[in-house]
Amino acid sequence: MVRIGIVDDELPFRDMVEEIVSGVLREISVQAKIDKYTDGASFFDKVKNGAVYHILLADIKMKKMDGIELGRMIRQKSPDMYIIFITSYEKYAAESYRIEAFQYILKQDLKSRLPGVIRSLLLRLADQEQEFRIVSTGTEKVKIFYRDIIYLYKSKGAKYVNYVTKKGIVRERISLEKLLKELNSRLFIPVERGYVVNMERILKIKGDTLYLEMGYEVQVSRLRLKTVKQEISRSWGGRG
Question: Could you tell me the pTM of the whole model?
Fold first, then answer.
């Protein structure tokens, strides 16, 4: 189930956003829970204490913690959360992109733009819930969602592929080539002999090094560097 947080200190705005989002949910039949908050601090406290939200819709100009400050804190605590800023002020657009907001919508465009943005995002999240692999480790079976994989690697001469995930490392006895065919997803790109990276887990590329979530680093081979950079541009350019 998708969890959505709406944060604004004005009741009419919170209700309007909820009405728009609820209308889209009924239209596409995606299950979701919507929670409304009067300030950013209350929302962040919930996240800090373990609440999982997939989408945050927040006003930028609020009396207590503003949306930009909230966004920065969310990026550190929950980097996967999709942030949509809604505001009356265009001047905050550049700052919102610096913290990788998914969208920035002016309030006067709310009714015309928000339905399409939410529809696209909810469908994307629904698809991600369907993308997983059941891995047999010998003693147990583990369900691994594609979105949780940071990268894959197989050491030279080894019989196992290692899934490096947010929850730890899982091994499967399979060739890397066969695994990629079975995953059949544009999320994964080979970057070096025996190494495959999830495009959505790349935070930065500097020289021939990819900096991934959770502090991992993977080098890109000289032969693949141009292709990898092109794929990163495609992936990042498509966001928002």
Answer: 0.62
